Fold:
Amino acid sequence: MDLGISGKVVLITGGGGALGTAMASIFAAEGAKIAVVDVNAENAATVAATLTDGGAAACAIGADITDKAQIDQAFSQAEQRLGPIDILVNNAGFSRDSYLTKMDEADWDLVHYTVLKGTFHCCRAALPGMMERRFGRIVNISSMSYLGNAGQTNYSSAKAGLIGMTNALAREAGRFNITVNAIAPGLIVTPRLRARKDFDVLEQRSNATTPMPRLGLPEDCPSSINQPLQ
Structure:
């Protein structure tokens, strides 16, 4: 399937993780150039090396998306190596679960800073160039947790905020031929999820409540992102 992204430059945050790797692989298979951005520079380098070994144009950049200076530098490096950013995937994020009365304030802040402020920094870095060229695609990775899960007040509120941010930014950017969308996956089988002590319980619950009775796989998410460019 030709998605119309051959030669486009895609920057993926959290690109060194399971979801980021799957997204990068599918974008690369469509001929896109990939900037893999991750706080873990080693993981980013591993993903980028796999892509380049497969014939894709890719680069790895270590950056903490909660730090504006690091993000500005990351975007500058990506554009120097691959060209202007056409597609931004705000994928970086993680949970730090605990009941609210027991939640450490640092865990509240870290989840919100990563999911919301990190996305803010990345969008601010990408949008001026997209506006000037009058083309851009921004995809924010939310979660079905935005509906609320016990023990996830930080994560659920951050992912719900991301959907609100997406709706608002879509209205701001649309007149520049820039689309802003969010996808909200359910539980996805990643190494982090498998390491949870309650993994078996989560899997059984998902099998019982999901129309397709199984947990999601990392490669399911790119299929939601990848739509032909118009």
Observations:
- The radius of gyration is 17 Å.
- The helical segments are 18-29, 41-53, 68-82, 105-133, 153-173, 191-194, 199-209, 220-225.
- The CA atoms of residues 61 and 74 lie 6 Å apart.
